[in-house]
Fold this protein.
Amino acid sequence: MTSTRPSDAERMDRHYRYQRFIYDMTRTHYLIGRKHLIADLKPSPGQTVLEIGCGTAWNLIRTAQRYPDARIYGVDVSNAMLDTARASINRKGLAKRIQVAQADATAFSAEQALGVPQFDRVVFSYALSMIPAWQEALEIGAAHIAPGGSLHIVDFGQCGRLPTAFKSALFAFLDHYTVTPRPDLEDACRQVAATKDLGLTFNRMHRGYTDYAVLTRKT
């Protein structure tokens, strides 16, 4: 969905040119933890939520439906995915509540892309495992947290308490789609938390299938 090289937007557009039409239908059963993340956001009325690597807007739509008084934003590097996102947002009648824009997760300013400098909630949902320069994206995401806000990350874990055969099959499947679970995600989160004076909670859920992190900025 996002990365640093100039050709990545075109590459991801080619990758998702046709997949985007069945993306949500085929991902529902293995992108575990997205509903948990959305339930954990709890923005107050009038607060802002940004998803970086928003794809087809699956999360944005459900966040807007769950929190009708929040303002919802999303960015993605792929214009093809954003075309699908906008169509889905319009079908749900949420065009006035959800704003999306094209941007590279590793090098963007939300103020320039969306007109909002910082956000009360920032989200990476199964995006860091698709971004080659994911540590840079993590830094950028943390920089967009407003005072008193938080960055929420859900992604593939290392399946530490699942059968080895299951992990091998899953990782081979993910590799086919250029998805790479990040074994050092917790270390990277701790480093960002330390350098930016953020609080951190990190949980390995579903027997290690899912990593869930929350970085919190003080008021």
